[in-house]
## 1
Amino acid sequence: MPRLSIKCTNLTYYYDDERGPALQGLDLSIPEGEWTAVIGPGGSGKSTLCQLLSGYLPRSGGGKREGGLELGGIDPATAEIAEIAERCGLVFQDPDAQLVQGTPQDEAAFGPENLRVPPPEIERRVEEALAAVNLEQRRHSPVRELSGGQRQRTAIAAVLALRPRIVVFDDASASLDPAAQGQFVQLCRKLHAEGRTLITASGRFDDAARSAERVIVLAGGRVLLDGPPQELLRKGRGLLAQLGLLPPWEGAAKAGPGLAAGPAVPAASAHMTPPGAAADSGSLLAVDRLSFAYAGAPLALHETSFAMKPGEWGIITGENGSGKTTLTRLLMGLLPVPIGAVFWQGQDMAGWRVRQRAAKIGYVFQQPEHQFVAHTVWDELIYGLGRKKGRGRELDSSERERAESLLLMAGLEGRRGASPYLLSQGEKKLLSIIAQFVHPKSLYILDEPTSGIDYGAADKILRLCREQAACGAAVLMITHDPALVEGEASFMLKLYRHKPAEYRRLASV
Amino acid sequence: METLSQSKRRNLSFTTLDIVLMAMLATANAVMTFYLTYINKMLNSLGGPVATSTIVGVYMVYGLLAYYIIRKPGTAAITYGIGGAIQCFVGTTYGIASAIVAALCYIVVAEAVFALTRYKRWGMGMMMFAGGAMVPLWFVCAANMFGYTAWSWQVLAVTLVMRLLSGIVLCGVLTKMLGDMLQRSGLLRRFAIGRKEAEHAPTIH
Amino acid sequence: MIAYQKQQSHLHRIDPLSKLVLLFCIALLVMRLHSSLGQVLLLCTVACMARWAAGMPWKKQAKALAVVAGFAVPYFLVTLLTVPGGQVLAQWGPLRFTLEALDTAGSVTLRMFTVFLSSYVFMFTTDPRDMVVSLTLRLRIPYRFAFGLSMALTFLPLLQEEGRSISAAHQVRGQGKPDGIRGKLEWGRTFAAAVMHNSLRRIQQTAGAMEAKGFGAYPDRTFLRTAMPVGKGRIIAIMAVALTAGLWWYTQNVNL
Ligand SMILES: Nc1ncnc2c1ncn2[C@@H]1O[C@H](COP(=O)(O)OP(=O)(O)OP(=O)(O)O)[C@@H](O)[C@H]1O
Ligand SMILES: Nc1ncnc2c1ncn2[C@@H]1O[C@H](COP(=O)(O)OP(=O)(O)OP(=O)(O)O)[C@@H](O)[C@H]1O
Ligand SMILES: [Mg+2]
Ligand SMILES: [Mg+2]
């Protein structure tokens, strides 16, 4: 078998728009069997590199590549499809972009089928791949009925079943729950032990990066640091922290709470939600034994209650598929709300239309693409701001100022004319969030705002939340890394298997 | 280095992107047919099959649009093929057999028309001609399948003229307009329609 | 939109291509028979087949046929009034009902019912994925093209979803469908453009992701899903063809 090393020589890549290069003069050589973590802040070019390796760029995504790239003797830009598919498997960052077959089983079988693997062998691989991501039970569910994390697992399984010798994970664990993230690192270890070349990209110096043999830090499309993780942590800690790749609590401390902190199965209901939350008259939003089932499916949310006062900051956590997104979609009226379960200042919200709710509640979707409505970043940001006069919108000076400052904060001021869809994943997320914070609302609901972005950007988001909470707005946030916010939030609700499993008041600041 | 004939062959065989586009257009057609059923019903109760003839052009748009965008021989065969097949599962009020026969009729005519012009002409006139040309063959088949033959020749003639007009305007003209609109969005750069534009661009100024 | 239901009826266990042959036989007979009586018999046969061979309850059949009724009734009237004939049954002023017209109208209307019901039975009993497998393994259509069907079927719910999600996005962002015709039209235009734009993006992504998993790498591929056994289907298809040919000959030469 030929040696499957990866070699970049002066690799430079331009997207189709007339901007500077997204990657610039990369010189890398990765020997076969090495586990390399590529980390860097949002928009630093990680996904671009991953997609170049798999040949997706420039083959399908367009753009212009300069310099050399070699993948065990072939150039992914010009090689035959079979040559690449047999060598290299890429899990894209956005699960929706790669799920094309309908069910996890079909998805996992798709690759091996194309490579003419005999059916009994495919069956074995599918089973193994689905087991590796804990998705056996959802084997035949339509993909569109899966939760965000379950889709990401499906995407991972689909590539595992291909058994490529080079495996590239582009931030593939971003929306996984802590237990699954731990499993993901285990999976990487196993793949590495099997002798596969492994590349994991992420926006943070996370557990995967710590377990890797080598870490490459990208910033602005260039390699900034390159070396074994321990060495980087020793020598480059300052720079890493400055780039936002280290968690804030690691500024000085040796080790923070690992990602897999906390038991996967919480002890059931020592402190359950105070019942009759609706009776609490001072509350802004009260949820009282809210249950919901999708058509033809068992309950996706079971008797959940909590209440929020103005200025409060709540966290919702829970494993993938436990009903978090369902809960917030209900609050927003995107799913039909039963009568007598959700109250706004004591008033039943059941009959409210989405638009009515939108006047009071700002909502950020789990998948940022789902909420884009405009063709440019700036239009996206100011959508709905100002009064419509004819076709043009006129912002008053304070609105404009706020929009500008938010844009600056998100680091998107240079991209105001770009299409929101052509941003990096982290940039998309930031845009979707600031586009809500630009409007004054009484409650902001954020569905996993900090997943897949670097700590620097996460900190900016938290600052926004803090500001709003100080002004009297409430914030409800779904997150898989509560460690980031626990210090400031007022309560945490944990869902387990579609039920509230734990409700904890936190010492708010 | 690949030779000219190699690159030409590569240009003429269908890429995955082409096939996905055709599938998407066929799907859009299926969805549209599904919702057009209501309009069709309304027209039908106003003026029977003669009135429904006014919109037959819309049902052919997807294949012609695919041809207009992809411009490779065989495009209509695959697009209408997928379109006909998917109607076996989504259903039309006229039945699966008619969906398949209609698709076959469109394939024969569209492939012939573009082959005759050697895939070189894509102007408005050509598209109108193609839209109109696809009508008669299917009309003859449909008349036999649904028993229109029982009508008097005047009614048949009126229906045919309606269908021809519908084919020319609602299929030909609409396809051209839709295609040009999509082309302006800049997302078709990787198809023939987008490349043509790029080739001409330097000569414009 | 997709009518397929997983069940264990006889027709569910027959391969899609044989069923298509059966379907075309029915379509041919429908074309061939010109009298109302013949059509009634045919419709009854198809209905019985739907009930006992496909396990489709009567109620479901009735519901399906009600969909076509909206077409069939006006169609019936138009034919009744336009077809020339000799035997006058009733006459009010210029309106003349002839026996021939009634017979033809009945036959063309029943035709629609038969055609629709038989198609519905096919949809009801056929898993689309089996069709893709049959097309490639039996008809030897290159799998990349046959997969167009499979992709189209995945896009189907996706397009609807896409529409719903774009609409949700606008509402969440504080602008739902506005009131007033002009506002609605403008909104519809934006909406359609957004759906189109997103679909085009998805086409690129899907194609790229499929190639990344080796789609199109070789001229053929394997299938995890095994092709349905064709033994029984082939017998039924041959019988259907023979029966159709026989009936055709009979109606042509013996009983016109
Ligand atoms: N399709 C595209 N067209 C144009 N520019 C793009 C496109 N995708 C990404 N970019 C830009 O290229 C740069 C690098 O993007 P890339 O997606 O590689 O970043 P990333 O490191 O993966 O970031 P993240 O952590 O947010 O995923 C960014 O500035 C981004 O805005
Ligand atoms: N449209 C749908 N139809 C049917 N079931 C659905 C649908 N959407 C979600 N579900 C199911 O409901 C359950 C809860 O999903 P939800 O999206 O709320 O999970 P989540 O807690 O947000 O998970 P994640 O952390 O992965 O985003 C899951 O089991 C999921 O499969
Ligand atoms: Mg990325
Ligand atoms: Mg979720």
## 2
Amino acid sequence: MKTFYKKFSEKFIEGLLMLSGTITSLTVVLIVFFLFKEGLGVFDKKPVEEGYVIALSKSNPLKTLSSEQIKNIYDQKITHWSEIGGKPDSIILFRAEDISNFYSDEEIGENFEGLSTCINRLVDSLPDIIAFFPKKYLAKDFKGHELTVDKVSLKEFFGGKEWFPTAQPSAQLGVLPLILGTLWVSFGAILLALPLGLAAAIFMSEIAKDNVRRIMKPLIELLAGIPSVVYGFFGLVIIVPLIQKTFNLPVGETGLAGSIILGIMALPTIITISEDAMRNTPRAMKEASLALGASKWQTIYKVVIPYSISGISAGAILGIGRAIGETMAVLMVTGNAAVIPHSILEPVRTIPATIAAELGEAPNGGLHYQALFALGCILFLITLFINLAVEFISNRKQHNKH
Amino acid sequence: MYKIESKNVDFFYGASQALKNINIAIKPNTVTALIGPSGCGKSTYLRLFNRMNDLIDNTKIAGQVLIDGEDIYAKGVNVDSLRKKVGMVFQKPNPFPKTIFENVAYGLRVNGITDKKLIEERVETTIKQVVLWDEVKDKLKKSAFELSGGQQQRLCIARALAIQPSVVLMDEPTSALDPISTAKVEELIYELKTKYTIVIVTHNMQQAGRVSDTTAFFYMGELIEHDTTKTIFTNPKIERTQNYITGRFG
């Protein structure tokens, strides 16, 4: 009886452990699946909002336009059909709300019951018109033709330089400024954090006395525990005005501010990981160097750093990973202008900040919503790549240590 | 004139005393073996000669250690140049993760020698000195980790000799080696005697007998007996030495 009970409990515990493992793995797989399912959906959508049409006159030979062309037409950057391969006449813009410029209120009707007829007549009478209006006002005997708009293409998505996901009539989903903004801020952060972090790590592992180290280490680990919104607040109140004053800028919310905050946030990762790596340098190796008459500093840069270089790189890469994925602090201090940055003193917008700021106002399942998920996929792939790089580097390290 | 003298040396790790009133005088161009059971203080004593114990926090030394008549623990002594004069070989082969060539050249480079030709010459002569040249001359640019343990240890000896010390300290240099490599290192020690003063810590009684001129027996932080190796092994004056040598304890 007793052995049966023992066997049963053993099996039970085994099953429980397996279940936990399965649930965790499944969760990860499901999250990734969900992310990509929603994210990839964006390439199956048209940039024109559902329920709306863009129409041209029958005599206009153009059949399709790209999202960018439509935007440029409505922004009046393209003013003649000839610029996009049509007639040499100038383009007449029309949105449904412009109808009162052409027809009287009686013709349109109190509840817009005459609107479809009016639009039909207007499109028929103006051969150079481009009309954007709700699909329900499309007359049955429509005398113009509906313009087909291409689906969002990979090229447009990754190469587009403009991010206006809610633009009318055609959304602009160029993620290039966001990707560049993210890399820009992260690169600046690592440029600031790496030398400082490395110096602190060297100090802690090689120079500081034990009691100094005992105080410093928890302090640095505490730095990792501060909520990112507090960093953002600190940045907004201290660093942003400081940058504005120092560089005499109209606004202080810049890529530089983001880099500084992210640099501070990446410090604990860089310091703790590279310090651990340096402390793992065999004592015999350091002693051998010192016994040959090398000074402490010579020993550090000729033996300790080369020996722990893979650990240091892992720390730096993980630091970058932290910087790339960070949301709140960056959202608060970078100014969030979705333009390709030309200097560190311009506002930039990062991928995580975009998702956090816009997801709330994007209708569930819509184009904007799915575009944000696609951004999430990009972020996921970047951090996945970073983690793989760390894995690769630490594997190489184990290989080195014969 | 003695090469190394220690006068009334006490040494403390924190509050515990590791060495008690050690007095030894070592003549130039001799091999001195330090023997004794584990924890007797012989390694600690050896590491006093190049001030390696300075690296350990919270240690204290009293008394005098003289090398060439100068107190190496006096104020104003440059530890880096002391270590240049007093080379050291460690228990386990510990080459740097660098090429064979760079391992030997390391000591020269950190001591400010930049003349390429001089470095190349010195590397070659010291590798020849440790009888390793024929084995490594074709792979000087390869990692030192590709060598066998015995080869690595001889490389480490070459590394120590490259900066031309006058004293070489060896801390159980063969404890991690196979018998054949051990024999090679012992042979080498015997030959190096003509140029250097050697102090060697060893657990291996036969080794002490084979390579050393004088032997010092340590027990519990005290120097029990120091005499010619022959006397220690055949006719020790103190019974405890006899007991240790004959293997009755230790």
